[in-house]
């Protein structure tokens, strides 16, 4: 038998007075499936089980969750990577309000993303064809633009847990740097002015939880370091 | 931009820089102290008081005291804003911390120049 013991965080605010963990036995038939497949099998046993997913191939960023204590995307996390001693524990992303079961309210996360103005700002009249960038300048955006906003990083960051309303968080800061580093963006000094307070950037303590969990292999800590360098160069 | 009025330098950037500079000064002061004590195993009052009577030692010590004050304020302020969510308690604790830092600073100056 290849039964997997799965413990899942359950909470339905309409019927439950408090969250609880529910145990499931899932027959994986010995295959090394993804955690998302296990959730689908659980949903066959109990159709009230709620979780988000869409692309099921690590592109949309909607199934970020905490699997055996580590954040990641359920659809691209094979059981062999997370299961310890035949047990799997699934919880919602930590630090955000739970709407139901594994579904969290991402409003604060998106608010921080919105705050860094994640769009190109350039008031120079457009050239006839397009705004050109040298290959070197384009290279600076690698490792930044690939973020899928899954929130695995920000919800693993203690600084974001304590101050989600003030600290932008690793995901937002990676995108802040994506536009600071863009040679076509003209709002650099305005962007920097928005970030020099004691919370937005400087609440980062360099713990690097964000780097450890990012399913796209991105490095928010390095981007945060670069923002600090830019702030320092700008103000000294 | 998140506004704040109780952090040390009014800006996250200046707090960050001061925190690093003060850490370097405190490390140098500690190294000097440990080195001095190791080189003077039979230290007596006259030598010790002579050390703190010299102008350069008073400058170095005052620099270390001021660094300690800034370092403690920035560090503890951060701790209060992470963990103390009720505003009244947070402000009260911040006030006690700042008062204590002020008292220790004045006391330190008095000890230095009272020798
Ligand atoms: S940086 Fe990585 S972990 Fe964070 S939101 Fe983007 S893709 Fe997800
Ligand atoms: S490095 Fe900074 S942003 Fe990343 S988890 Fe640590 S404190 Fe959070
Ligand atoms: S379902 Fe789209 S990233 Fe997992």
Automatic annotation (TrEMBL), chain A:
Single GO molecular function: 2 iron, 2 sulfur cluster binding
Enzyme class, broadest EC rank: oxidoreductase
Catalytic activity: a quinone + succinate = fumarate + a quinol
Ranges of residues in domain 4Fe-4S ferredoxin-type: 137-167
Cofactor: [4Fe-4S] cluster; [2Fe-2S] cluster; [3Fe-4S] cluster
Pfam families with a match to the protein in the record: Fer2_3 (PF13085), Fer4_17 (PF13534)
PROSITE patterns linked: 4FE4S_FER_1, 4FE4S_FER_2
Keyword line: 2Fe-2S, 3Fe-4S, 4Fe-4S, Electron transport, Iron, Iron-sulfur, Metal-binding, Oxidoreductase, Transport, Tricarboxylic acid cycle
EC nos: 1.3.5.1
Coiled-coil segments on the chain, per record: none
Pathway: Carbohydrate metabolism; tricarboxylic acid cycle; fumarate from succinate (bacterial route): step 1/1
Database matches in InterPro entries: 2Fe-2S_ferredoxin-like_sf, 4Fe4S_Fe-S-bd, 4Fe4S_Fe_S_CS, Beta-grasp_dom_sf, Helical_ferredxn, SDH/FRD_Iron-Sulfur, Succ_DH/fum_Rdtase_Fe-S, Succ_DH/fum_Rdtase_N
Function field: Two distinct, membrane-bound, FAD-containing enzymes are responsible for the catalysis of fumarate and succinate interconversion; the fumarate reductase is used in anaerobic growth, and the succinate dehydrogenase is used in aerobic growth.
Listed name of the protein: Succinate dehydrogenase iron-sulfur subunit
Organism encoding this protein: Onishia taeanensis
């Amino acid at each position: 038998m290849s039964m997997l013991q799965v413990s899942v965080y359950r909470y339905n605010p309409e019927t439950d007075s408090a969250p609880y963990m529910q145990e499931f036995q899932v027959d994986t038939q010995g295959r090394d499936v993804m955690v998302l497949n296990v959730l689908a099998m659980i949903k066959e046993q109990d159709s009230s089980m709620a979780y988000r997913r869409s692309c099921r191939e690590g592109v949309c960023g909607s199934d970020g969750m905490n699997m055996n204590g580590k954040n990641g995307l359920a659809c691209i996390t094979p059981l062999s990577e997370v299961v310890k001693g035949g047990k799997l524990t699934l919880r919602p992303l930590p630090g955000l309000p739970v709407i139901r079961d594994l579904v969290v309210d991402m409003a604060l996360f998106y608010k921080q993303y919105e705050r860094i103005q994640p769009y190109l700002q350039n008031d120079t009249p457009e050239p006839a064809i397009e705004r050109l960038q040298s290959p070197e300048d384009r290279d600076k955006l690698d490792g930044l633009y690939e973020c899928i906003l899954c929130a695995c990083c920000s919800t693993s960051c203690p600084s974001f847990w304590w101050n989600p309303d003030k600290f932008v968080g690793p995901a937002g800061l990676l995108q802040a740097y994506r536009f600071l580093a863009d040679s076509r963006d003209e709002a650099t000094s305005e962007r920097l002015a928005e970030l020099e307070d004691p919370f937005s950037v400087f609440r980062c303590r360099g713990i690097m939880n964000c780097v450890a969990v990012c399913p796209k292999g991105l490095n928010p800590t390095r981007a945060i370091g670069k923002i600090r360098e830019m702030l320092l160069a700008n103000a000294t | 931009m998140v506004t704040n009025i109780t952090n040390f330098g009014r800006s996250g950037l200046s707090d960050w820089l001061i925190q690093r500079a003060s850490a370097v000064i405190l490390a140098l002061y500690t190294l000097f102290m440990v080195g001095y004590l190791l080189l003077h195993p039979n230290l007596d009052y006259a030598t010790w008081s002579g050390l703190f009577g010299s102008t350069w030692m008073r400058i170095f010590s005052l620099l270390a005291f001021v660094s300690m004050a800034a370092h403690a304020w920035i560090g503890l302020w951060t701790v209060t804003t992470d963990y103390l969510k009720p505003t009244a308690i947070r402000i009260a604790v911040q006030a006690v911390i700042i008062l204590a830092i002020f008292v220790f600073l004045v006391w330190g100056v008095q000890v230095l120049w009272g020798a």
